[in-house]
Amino acid sequence: MPLHIKVNQNIMEMEYAVRGPIPGRAAELKKQGRVIIPCNIGNPQALGQKPITFYRQVVSLVEDPSRNTDSVSDYVLDLSKDFLSKMESGLGAYTESNGPLFIRKAIAEFINKRDGFDSSSGASSNPDNIFITNGASEGAKYIIDLLIAGKTDGIMIPIPQYPLYSATIKKCGGVQVNYYPDEDNGWTFNRSILEEALNSVRKNGVTVKGIVVINPGNPTGAVLDEKTIREVIDFAKKNNIVIIADEVYQENVYNAKFVSFARVLGEEDVPLCSLHSVSKGFYGECGHRGGYLEVRNPPKVLGTDMSFTRIILKQASVCLCANTVGQLLTYLMVNSPEEGSDPYRQFIGEKQSILNELKDKAAMIREGFKQMDSVECFGRTGAMYLFPRLNKLPKGSTDFDYCMNLLENTGLCTVNGSGFGQKEGTHHLRIAFLPPKRLIEKVLPEWIKFHNEYVNRK
Amino acid sequence: MPLHIKVNQNIMEMEYAVRGPIPGRAAELKKQGRVIIPCNIGNPQALGQKPITFYRQVVSLVEDPSRNTDSVSDYVLDLSKDFLSKMESGLGAYTESNGPLFIRKAIAEFINKRDGFDSSSGASSNPDNIFITNGASEGAKYIIDLLIAGKTDGIMIPIPQYPLYSATIKKCGGVQVNYYPDEDNGWTFNRSILEEALNSVRKNGVTVKGIVVINPGNPTGAVLDEKTIREVIDFAKKNNIVIIADEVYQENVYNAKFVSFARVLGEEDVPLCSLHSVSKGFYGECGHRGGYLEVRNPPKVLGTDMSFTRIILKQASVCLCANTVGQLLTYLMVNSPEEGSDPYRQFIGEKQSILNELKDKAAMIREGFKQMDSVECFGRTGAMYLFPRLNKLPKGSTDFDYCMNLLENTGLCTVNGSGFGQKEGTHHLRIAFLPPKRLIEKVLPEWIKFHNEYVNRK
Fold first, then answer.
1. Homologous superfamily of A9-49+346-455 in CATH?
2. What is the topology classification, in CATH, of domain B9-49+346-454?
3. CA distances (Å), A415 to each of A163, A403, A421, in order?
4. I need a labelling partner for B6 at 20 to 30 A (CA). Which of A159, A254, B279, B430 fits?
5. Residues A13, A17, A20, A21, CA torsion sign
């Protein structure tokens, strides 16, 4: 008889819809030879987006410095040599667990420049509080795992949210505390929405330790303004809560301006953990798993002399270090080619073309929604996603059923809104607006046709 | 006043000596300009080991297929093209969370070939039960996290052990159950040693769910024979325990033959999770964080229809996938250049030279021990480590003091035995035998001098 065992209940119960049953079914259909359009996940290069040439030239050269360099520009050559001289043992050695200091310094300079901080200002980024990670997910896990000290510790997350957060909170045995941005007002929220969520769990003995804010939003795409960020900061300050700002889509704003939490925070003493990644933006280097976590105003830890960041370093050290190519790409992300340098023109051209195309594709799909019965899509466009509300569904059916049927009918793989959480009684789906235009042009009419038939089914 | 918070106690308490206070002090000394020889960790390329040329040629080309290929052999060119044709979206896209099927198939074929399994045999490796991971550490964490379902669940680990295991058990809130290989008999052990450890905790209500075996040993370097492996299997079978076989040093055997757990297990129905990595062996690609976990005979999970491996896949999916360059290197590790192919001769030459040098360096350091007062080193040489016992220390001092003083005096950074666990009353250190020979020749006399003065201090 095979061994029967009990396993960790938190892992059993955690859900991760972005890779759940619908993508699972899509994989089956693909095996059977069906054409699948994987819009379930923000994975640009899986949908034909080309890597930024400059990035790959540098990585290729750093991996094999002895290769033929005839076609390589002096700028790439010098930068690769400089990188290798600082990264003493090349890409093959473990680095410091938080990443080499020179990369963390470059990240700090990038943040200072982005947010207009003078390096002598109190708001200047501190490289000692930066951790280079395998994508942004790893940094989020470190913080949530550390903050949840017991079963009654909670983390506030927006609904809808990216399921990394709900899954990690569940996995760590803490309480998921939902707050509800106002969909009809473009997913905006304010302090009273946050206070309401906090008060609703405080009476049950839950201690809220952190609040997750995703800006630009995932799955909603909504872009926060400075006023909202200010309200989150005031809320966190008053209630002794650590802010976890997921800012991986900071380059993915199309009709608005990105404002970082760090910028609004300035010199104010509120703990902030912000995340960034090489997976999104115009780079889209998901597979390379690069990113960073920056901690500002780390809280004091009760019962120990160890600092908050020292404990994060200990977490990072157990798996030794983030992968070095992800680290190199993070370095390149914060270190774009200088204006006027050899690769500059091509780099900027590729960047603009990718961002413009994303903007156009989002607009195309939004136009399509207008031809679908009872579909509304709120908020400005940001990130890589649209999150339309399905106001009409056949009686008794759910957005899960809708997405599954959409997949079976058109090959379009999306994720049901319930996978991200949504206000009770509402139905949505998330679509990543990444497929090439010609594919959108082809599938959109099929989707519209499917939709209008499906929702009007008796 | 800054925020004061309570954090996860398990993370606070977990220890990871390999990156603990002694390496911390070494980093400080280095900043001050001292020459440090980092033997605290198996990080070959940090000590001058060159990457395998073939691996880097392929990675470089796959990262930038448009590069100049004048100096690239047809074999490398074809292999890179073939890889890219199978890895449809290149290195920039997320892969399946367990890794692409073609890489998992290649791993399964490697295991079958290594262990002499016919692909039609019941012992043949199943690609569906293989997970490509960021180094081997990640796989070990998945399994331990899954097995520990409550505070009274325990995992058996050898003492001394690699602190990934003690740290992860602590982090997951389980019980660390020690078993003690017999140092004076070359770190061998048998079933009665295992039964003793099990019985000592069973009476306290601890349920042992898994047993970790590190072969070749870390930190001891000891290589297990088939008979011992058989006893572990019988023990696990009788007591319903999952075997976690850390086999990352399988290429690092110098005077013995490596026998895998899978080979000895054959078709027998005992759950086995085995780990391998691109960080060790002759490849030493630590920074790239590649590796795999293979599960055999997955146990049934109580209270669910989900399979054990389906739940591991869910764990892997939360961070989306292992980094793709680590995946490519894992593919190359299990897919060496064919005999007679262009890169073959250079590949084999590099491999042999690295392994021979490791063997010589271990022998040099062992010779040095003979000139140190009351130092004994047991077991055959394996892995990348020697773990000598310090039978004489100044009264009241510990192996931690010894290693710290050794560092301050000679720049040699080792790890104290207590960082790995050791039988009470004994003292050790672990040294990675990786520095270039000329460096060993220089530092060894200094160490001998330091040692004989230090241990005879009044």
1. Aspartate Aminotransferase, domain 1 (3.90.1150.10)
2. Aspartate Aminotransferase, domain 1 (3.90.1150)
3. 11, 7, 11
4. A159
5. positive
Q: Which two tokens stand for residue A216?
A: 């630009």
Largest CA distance in chain B: 70
Question: Which residues between 357 and 396 in chain A have a beta carbon less than 8 angstroms from any beta carbon of chain B?
Answer: none
B149 near B157, Cβ under 8 Å?
no
DSSP state of A288: G
C-alpha span between B53 and B45 (Å, rounded): 13
pTM (2 d.p.): 0.95
Residue A175 bridge partners (DSSP): A154
Beta bridge partners of B158: B179
Give the Cα separation of A193 and B380 in Å (integer).
66
CA distance B250 to chain A (A): 19
Chain B stretch 39-58, residues whose beta carbon is closer than 8 A to a beta carbon of chain A? 41, 43-46, 51, 53, 56-57
Q: How many pairs of residues across A and B have Cβ atoms under 8 Å apart?
A: 292
For chain B, the average pLDDT equals 94
pLDDT at A269 exceeding the cut of 80 = yes
Task: Enumerate the domain spans of chain A.
Answer: 9-49+346-455, 93-333
Sign of the torsion angle spanned by Cα atoms A61, A66, A72, A78: positive
Find residues 261-290 of chain A whose CB sits inside 8 Å of chain B: 269-271, 279, 284-289
Compute the Cα dihedral for B439, B445, B451, B454 and give only its sign.
negative
Q: Regarding beta strands A272-277 and A291-296, do their DSSP bridges make them parallel or antiparallel, or are they unpaired?
A: antiparallel
Q: DSSP state, B389?
A: E
Q: For residue B238, how many C-alpha atoms fall within 13 Å in the half-sphere facing its CB?
A: 11
Task: Measure in Å the smallest separation between the Cα of B329 and chain A Cα atoms.
Answer: 11
Work out the pLDDT band at A1, boundaries 50, 70, 90: low
Strands (E), A239-329: 242-246, 272-277, 291-296, 300-301
CATH class entry, domain B93-333: alpha beta
Is the ipTM above a cut-off of 0.90? yes
- Helix ranges restricted to H, A132-225: 135-147, 163-171, 191-202
| Phi, psi (deg, nearest 5) at residue B207 | -100, 115
